Amino acid sequence: MRLALEADIAVVGEATDGATAVDLADRLDPDVVLMDVNMPGMDGIAATRELAFRAPRTAVVILTMHDDRVTRDSALAAGAVAFVAKQQMDDALVSAIRSAAGNRKGASD
Predict the structure, then answer these.
(1) Phi first, then psi: what are they for 64, rounded to 5°?
(2) What element of type H or E holds 42?
(3) Which of 24, 60, 79, 92: CA 20 to 30 A from 47?
(4) Alpha-carbon dihedral 78, 72, 57, 89, rounded to 10 degrees
């Protein structure tokens, strides 16, 4: 709902688990995927790793309750371009999405 308030951000899909998120991103080719770490089945770290392989032009922003070094390092190593803790969500999240979209791999192609 928060993202719907932003004129320059359009939500094109939603998934409740990592495997569905990867499939949707593969089909929809979004600029940015906002990925939660905790999801049933394939978690957000594994889904980010898979997206880096299947949809390398899509930037992944990780959103999580777990703002710790191990989770952050795992997310970034999996290919995430940004990491936002849910506690700092509002402005930091919108800023991270805009930054990720601006730095999308191959965006100038």
Answers:
(1) -155, 155
(2) none
(3) 92
(4) 150
Q: Which amino acid is at 86?
A: K
Strands (DSSP E) along the chain, which ranges?
32-36, 59-64, 82-85
32-80 pLDDT, tens per residue? Answer: 999 999 999 999 999 999 999 998 889 999 988 877 899 999 999 999 9
What is the Cα–Cα distance from 73 to 55, expressed in whole angstroms? 21
* Residues contacting 16, CB < 8 A, separation 6+: 39, 40
3-state SS assignment for residue 57: coil
The residue type found at 50 is E
**Angle formed at CA 89 by CA 44 and CA 82, multiple of 5 degrees:** 50
